[in-house]
Amino acid sequence: MEQIRQYLEKTANLTDRDWNFFCSRLIREEFPKKHHILKAGQTENHLSFIETGMVRFYMPKEENELTFSFVFEHSFVSGYNSFLTQSPSAYNIETLTKTTLWRLTYNDLQSIYSETEIGNTIGRKAGEDLFLKKSLRELSLLNESAEQRYLNLFAEQPKLIKEIPLKYIASYIGITPQALSRIRKRIS
């Protein structure tokens, strides 16, 4: 929980009163590897902070799933468009390793917004973080080669990327597993 406070205090002054109210709403949950924390068709009811572990976002397809995002520890994670609109998600969020989340429900976040001085800043910062990651991903897909996207992912999380199956990495960077093998061979 202290990691969340450190994360929030990077951008805002957090009083003890606001922190106590905020953390009284947090629920700590542990999930095993390969667990769906959100399935397509479900409505996202949580804004979560990853204490440990990592997750992937993917579109379920009959032939090949389409992985479109990874989120690593010390970051916020949510099916945010579903969370904001309280409508069903079109994608899945799955743990790739044993993962520990600190979670806020939609209703608890609304209480934090209205009951604390810092609430709107907390929500804005979490939303901005999720938006920036999405924007950077889109720009990467438009401007970078598959090899550069792979190198960027590797640079971002060199230890954790070793735990991600290659088929998910290939899907994420928009190529086949065979093409990823050729890239990995070329840059080794």
Automatic annotation (TrEMBL):
**CDD domains attached here?**
CAP_ED
Q: Which positions are tagged coiled coil?
A: none
Q: In the record, which residues are listed under signal peptide?
A: none
Q: What is this protein called?
A: Crp/Fnr family transcriptional regulator
Query: Gene3D superfamilies attached here?
Result: Jelly Rolls (2.60.120.10)
Q: Which residues cross the membrane?
A: none
Q: Which PROSITE patterns match?
A: CNMP_BINDING_3
Residues covered by the Cyclic nucleotide-binding domain: 31-112
Q: What is the lineage of its organism?
A: Bacteria, Pseudomonadati, Bacteroidota, Flavobacteriia, Flavobacteriales
